[in-house]
Backbone:
């Protein structure tokens, strides 16, 4: 049976209600290459899936919705799946995807993961075709890592030169490659966005004080993820795990997730934020909409099924042996599973953000009483394991 996202009725059913009055835009002094709306929406995207259960499927008990209407695994470079994702992202009015290439796959810092960048580049090629044929453009940007400096698993990563070298590789392999269209790369202030994942509170300072060449990196608008020192976002970060305080208000970017679990051992980087039947996601969207709006909202993530932060429709009913367990079922307060609950809500709430449409209702929802988003997170430390 084909899937038509029937559950979007969660917001269509309330169209007769008064329109939501969004807060005024915050005074961020940046320009972007989105679709021209007052607020751009980005979303993290994972291409690290290989055919027949390879890649990172071995870690995941999630089975996402496929173009044929079934739930299952797919290859990250499968053009039919990529095109289906782009269709859904465009219908949701998402401006750009942020590739998770944070494990050193560029410049072969993590040679075991070098295949991931090739999957990401396959998505770039499909985006080129999409943007040539459709009025709503989907842009992309890359997230890289510097978190692995001096990590024994990454023996060639010795300094913040890792940012320079990965920036060079992305320029050579994507921006300057005729297989792709450089205008499809999302820009801030006229430069391609490059997000760096680093778990140290002084990462920005360490990069600023780095005395090596920055000739490639200076061609980008460098932004950060996870730089709170606790695996989670600091103000102005574009990811990674949620901060204890929930969404951190900021004029440029505000980041949120429906939940998160990296499944690391307690005391070795574990970060666990409960979804609570969708309440956590709703509460953080309410916080964004109740304050002056940022220039960019970033969602983590479209399809991260290994750190349990995905919003794209998936079957969560089974535990597969050998995967990262436990996972949090996508059930509502009605006790029923709702595979599309987070995607349906995302589609509806972006319409609220952009156009003042009525707020959607989370599937199977019930009022969340006397609970704050900052009560949900169990902190880890600034190591990835």
Residues:
């Amino acid at each position: 049976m084909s899937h038509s996202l029937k559950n979007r009725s969660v917001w269509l059913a309330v169209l007769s209600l008064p329109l939501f009055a969004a807060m005024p835009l915050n005074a961020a002094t940046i320009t972007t290459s989105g679709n021209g709306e007052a607020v751009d929406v980005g979303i993290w995207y994972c291409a690290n899936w290989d055919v027949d259960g390879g890649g990172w499927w071995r870690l995941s008990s999630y089975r996402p919705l496929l173009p044929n209407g079934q739930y299952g695994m797919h290859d990250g470079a499968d053009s039919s799946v990529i095109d289906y994702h782009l269709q859904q992202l465009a219908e949701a009015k998402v401006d750009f995807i942020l590739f998770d290439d944070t494990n050193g796959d560029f410049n072969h810092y993590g040679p075991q993961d070098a295949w991931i960048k090739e999957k990401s580049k396959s998505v770039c090629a499909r985006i080129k075709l999409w943007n040539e044929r459709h009025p709503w453009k989907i842009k992309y940007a890359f997230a890289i890592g510097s978190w692995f400096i001096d990590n024994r698993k990454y023996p060639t990563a010795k300094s913040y030169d890792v940012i320079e070298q990965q920036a060079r590789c992305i320029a050579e392999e994507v921006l300057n490659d005729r297989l792709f269209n450089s205008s499809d790369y999302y820009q801030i202030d006229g430069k391609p966005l490059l997000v760096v994942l680093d778990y140290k509170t002084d990462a920005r300072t360490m990069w600023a004080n780095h005395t090596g060449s920055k000739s490639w990196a200076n061609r980008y608008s460098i932004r950060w993820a996870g730089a709170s020192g606790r695996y989670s976002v600091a103000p102005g970060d574009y990811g990674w795990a949620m901060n204890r305080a929930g969404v951190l208000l900021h004029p440029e970017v505000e980041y949120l997730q429906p939940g998160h679990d990296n499944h690391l051992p307690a005391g070795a980087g574990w970060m666990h934020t409960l979804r609570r039947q969708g309440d956590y996601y709703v509460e953080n969207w309410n916080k964004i909409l109740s304050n002056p709006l940022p220039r960019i909202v970033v969602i983590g993530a479209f399809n991260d099924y290994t750190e349990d932060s995905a919003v794209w429709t998936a079957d969560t009913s089974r535990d597969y042996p050998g995967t990262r367990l436990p996972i949090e079922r996508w059930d509502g307060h009605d006790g029923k599973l709702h595979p599309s609950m987070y995607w349906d809500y995302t589609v509806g709430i972006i319409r609220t953000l952009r156009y003042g449409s009525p707020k959607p209702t989370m599937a199977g929802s019930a009022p969340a009483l006397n609970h704050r988003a900052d009560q949900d997170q169990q902190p880890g430390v600034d190591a990835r394991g």
Observations:
- The two ends are 41 Å apart (CA to CA).
